Amino acid sequence: MILAGDVGGTKTALALFEVRRRALAVVREGVLPSQGFAALADAIRQFLADGPSTSIDAACVGVAGPVIDGRCAATNLPWVVDEAALAECVSTRRVKLVNDLEATGHGILGLKPSALATLQAGARRKATMALIAAGTGLGEVLLVWDGRRHRVVGSEGGHTDFAPRTELETELLRFLRREFGRVSYERIVSGPGLYNIYRFLLATGGAPEAEWIRSRMEAGDPSAVVGEAALDNRDPRAVQALDLFVSIYGAEAGNLALKALAVGGIFVGGGIAPKIRPKLEDGTFVTAFRDKGRMGEMMASIPVHLVLEPRTALLGAAAVARSLLSGSAPKPRGAQATP
Fold it and tell me: What is the DSSP string of 163-225?
């Protein structure tokens, strides 16, 4: 039995898989609120206790944060996770801790075409690809072509410095700098980032904030309210916020493609993208993606796909765990994590 996990700042998805005829089959899965647990081990124990007793042969968990020497301090959670603690929790030495976007990268390599929507057709090439995904944070990962296959290489590119392209974006940078000091792309291209853009536009003047949108924000997720109001064309400020969000998202996706020379394709993943699919498909994203001066022609030749499969990271973690079943069991890295 394989245990796979996808840990985000908002939720933790866990699943048990069996290998059947060389394919992975889901036995049981569940989603738990990340903030409801003091540590990853607690969430895993709860998940396992909710079903029949089972023996785990291998496990892989993707965590939102940098994984170094088998250890990760989660970016948007008060959790410290390491492979040694994970191995003790599931009673097997065949464990692997990876960045959540690395897990998603492994999952993308196994997706069917029906799990993708094309934003830009481009030209098909066997070459390096890359993934960018906005959710609670902004993740980026490389899928490096080595001449035979793609190798998943993690990064923390979402934390690079935000580079404004217009006067409006320069004002946005100044607004956020007063609050945060340093401003990364993640401060803008993420769930909280969409609300940051909306707050900036509200602070710059214009019509007073509508009472209905203020009330809905107070009762729920402000960024989700902004996105829904924009897609329904119910609030001009929300429409402008989402337009700016998607344009900056496309620009940073283009930056990633340039840095990685990812002419094989760019994948847009994460929880936000499918929810704003109509906006991603209206040309705003691709226009910003291509707008790279002398590199514009090359950018227009790069395929850009929207990832529709919500369990891509979980499937990728399961694929990594499955690879651990062959060969001798590795020694888990990291010191025992404390809750």
Answer: ---SHHHHHHHHHHHHHHSS-BGGGTSSHHHHHHHHHHHHHT-SSPPPHHHHHHHHHS-HHHH
Q: How confident is the model at residue 334 (pLDDT cuts 50, 70, 90)?
A: low
| Farthest-apart Cα atoms in the chain, separation | 65
pLDDT (tens digit per residue) in 45-87: 999 999 898 899 999 999 988 889 999 988 778 899 889 989 9
In angstroms, the Cα distances linking 292 to 100, 142, 247, 258, 295 are 29, 20, 13, 9, 5
Domains and CATH numbers, the chain: 2-100+314-323 (3.30.420.40), 112-308 (3.40.367.20)
pTM above threshold 0.85: yes
Per DSSP, the residues of 80-98 read EEEHHHHHHHHT-S-EEEE
> What band does 319 get if pLDDT is binned at 50, 70 and 90?
very high
> Tens of pLDDT along 117-138?
999 999 999 999 999 999 888 9
Q: Which of 307, 245, 229 is nearest to 271 (CA)?
A: 307
Tokens standing for residue 150: 């793609």
Copy the structure tokens of residue 166.
């217009």
- The rounded distance, in Å, linking the Cα atoms of 229 and 236 is 9
CA distance 332 to 269: 29
One-letter amino acid for residue 229 of the chain: A
The C-alpha atoms of residue 129 and residue 116 are separated, in whole angstroms, by 15
